[in-house]
Amino acid sequence: MPIKRFLLLLALVPALAACEDPSGGGGTVDEDDLVFIQAAPNAPPPQSTDTTFWAVKGRDTELRLRYQTGQEFLRFRVRDGALLRRPDGSAIGQGDSVQIRIRVVNSGAFNFEFSPAGLKFDPKEPAELRVNYAFADPDFDDDGDVDDDDEDFEFGWWRQEAPGLRWERIGSVRVHDAEEVRADVTGFTRYALAGGH
Fold first, then answer.
1. Cβ-count burial of 162 within 10 angstroms (0-12 exposed, 13-18 middle, 19+ buried)?
2. 180 CB contacts (<8 Å, ≥6 apart)?
3. Cβ neighbours for 116, distance < 8 A, ≥ 6 positions apart
4. How confident is the model at residue 21 (pLDDT cuts 50, 70, 90)?
5. 57 pLDDT above the threshold of 80
6. Within 10 A of 116 (CB to CB), how many other CB atoms are there?
């Protein structure tokens, strides 16, 4: 192997390693291979299952979805520099606004649809998605028994481009003390809280 080619491959190793996601991001599976986190039978209903708000380039904006009891279950933050491109590919300029819609696909699960589909956020300053799972069914893996929050069953955010397509795991962080799962978002699609079999 020529020395230049060898050195080029050697230089790529750290870059490829940096792309690895320790939380398992990047894998795709069929819907039947996922266990979707379900709401507990006593979970309060959401105040709204379909909400819109305006995000403005240059302004930090945040939307919080709450249960009828007032407790927060979803938080979506668009940082001031996050908006990058509209679905048609055109750049979003400073001061431009985009109407964002968040729809609860299934109120019995942590499954959400974000639109407009194709909206892109800057990977250097992504939007932030958080969900509180305090009112999740404590049988996370759906095997018939109550799971300890620190058990081996790992769950996080998964995305699906369109109904019927495979699901892709995205990098997410589970904060056990806050009963919260967080992820950075660079584009719009359907997101659900789930784990693999």
1. exposed
2. 130, 131, 132, 133, 174
3. 86, 87, 98, 99, 100, 101, 188
4. very low
5. yes
6. 13
